[in-house]
């Protein structure tokens, strides 16, 4: 498809040097035509003007990534909400004319001149239990994404790099102690039973959906992919799913304070051992521009049957607190048994603490309204 997808076969001179292949340019032109004549509602369609397209179509990063690598998922999947991914960290700079307006749009105002604030987890003891009686919140989860410095993102990784990264992650995590102590399970060679059990527990990730497939994020599957979880099953790390690392803290019930505290402890611990990719303007770097900055997604699975029957009210409160409402099993799924997955939408331009607090306040408000209805 694009440049970095043939990374293992192309010599480095072909990749980095000079021109974008004619074949790639042809695909780009066809893709642009398909997109611009479609009724896609994606941010890609909205922001990829002919001027920007023409300015970017001949550019390449030092990993050989082209505009095609950036937009191919949104071109193939016209129902995308966003439609672009960064094949490597450099893409955010090389293809800034496209990334910047999309990032600004998605994150609710993050202008070219804005800078993401320094990392600040705040006072973890100020967040408590959102649902002490256990009436509404089924489970609570806070996760963040991290990229390992010196490695590109999924589409550009070689098989050798996947293996090397898995080795680093696995040896780092095996050093965790106390509540975080656990086991690393490589996907390679994992028995079908263990695999299915972990999927049913919502612990394991499956091979990428069509959006990630189209972005070439699933190459050499399952090489280099793995999952770590602690003995209590309240702390997980996904290795080389969509991002290099997804660090996840979760438990049943509504004790956001406990879940957040565990995540912060873990991130600080891992960060001492693995250097993470950080960008002066965008904060922590991720494969998908929706996760930039804090990369924090704080979510609950919540039962609000009355609000569920009044979808407009639910959406109204959600947008007031910048919350995202999804189906039970995450993005692009339905709510099973009236249980929604509700999370903070904003991750960029605010601190980690503010992102989690926004979710905290929004969920508190939803519960209050549900009780009153």
Automatic annotation (TrEMBL):
Any coiled-coil regions, as ranges: none
Binding positions (ATP): 139-143, 202, 246, 297-301, 326-331
Gene Ontology BP annotations: phosphocreatine biosynthetic process
Keyword Transcription: no
Domain Phosphagen kinase N-terminal: 24-108
Family matches, as InterPro entries: ATP-guanido_PTrfase, ATP-guanido_PTrfase_AS, ATP-guanido_PTrfase_cat, ATP-guanido_PTrfase_N, ATP-guanido_PTrfase_N_sf, Gln_synth/guanido_kin_cat_dom
Enzyme Commission number(s) of this protein: 2.7.3.3
Key words, A-Z: ATP-binding, Kinase, Nucleotide-binding, Transferase
GO CC, any one term: extracellular space
Gene Ontology MF terms in the entry: arginine kinase activity; ATP binding; creatine kinase activity
Domain Phosphagen kinase C-terminal span(s) in chain numbering: 136-373
Recorded family membership: Belongs to the ATP:guanido phosphotransferase family.
Protein name per its UniProtKB record: arginine kinase
Organism: Nasonia vitripennis
Record lineage: Eukaryota, Metazoa, Ecdysozoa, Arthropoda, Hexapoda
